[in-house]
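Quarterly update from the structural biology core.
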Amino acid sequence: MTSAVKSMTDSEFKALRDVIYKRSGIAFQDTKKYVLESRLSKRLEELELEDFNQYVQFLSFGPYASDEFQEMFNRITINETCFFRNEPQLEAFENIALNELIKARSATKRLRIWSAACSTGEEPYTLAMLVSRTLGVRLSDWNIEILGTDISEKALNIAEKGEYGQFSFRGVSPLHIKRYFNEENGVYRVNDDIKSMVRLDLHNLKETLAARRFGTWDVIFCRNVMIYFDADMKKQCVQLYHDQLADDGYLFIGHSETIRDLGVPFEPLGIAQAFAYSKQKPAGAGGLRVAS
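Predicted structure, tokenized:
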């Protein structure tokens, strides 16, 4: 039986929206009140709360406030992803960014990649597959660090298992599936050699100070999460990526996102559908640039 949707007053919506923004940086506009109503009404019934005002109090001051934030976040967000998503962008990563960085890191043989807001793990595992394919027999000589972070414990638990259904392989070549996965009864498990290349960690992009403990990255992927942020939060994130990115590193964002007009010194690679950026170089400095 479908639960009835509880109505939310404007003041309740503002209070709940403020809690969500303060904790995660996700901004719900006035037109999205129905989203919170529809996705959280059943939760109020489960907690035996009368209205959203009580829920805000429970979420803010209750002994289980931290756990409830995770539960709420799992219900109000949609983890929409798949393996090898946006092929043109991944081609730019593999053929340009990765190849250039392998040359530049030939002495240290160390490469660090951060998949921020990685959801259920398809993205960092995809990046691991591309690194493995590019390095080939040289892989054992390299120290490869791929970190996948997300705010959702539920999503990270799925990523940790490394087991996926057919829906995660929309448009993926059967050769890729055969090469990097073991299939049993319709469940596809990431091969152990690929899985071992990826480390997963719970992280809230709102917590920029905590992110700095991760150190400097050669590549940062943050796709399709900044669409939920307002201008201030976008700038905060992009500035963090700039600060934590190596001088010759690369930033990849989602196809519906832009970092223009944020005042952070990144410049696009100029490759169609790549949505890739590098740090701006001082006037007269060299560096790879591909004309659009």
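Confidence is low (pLDDT under 50) at residues 286-292.
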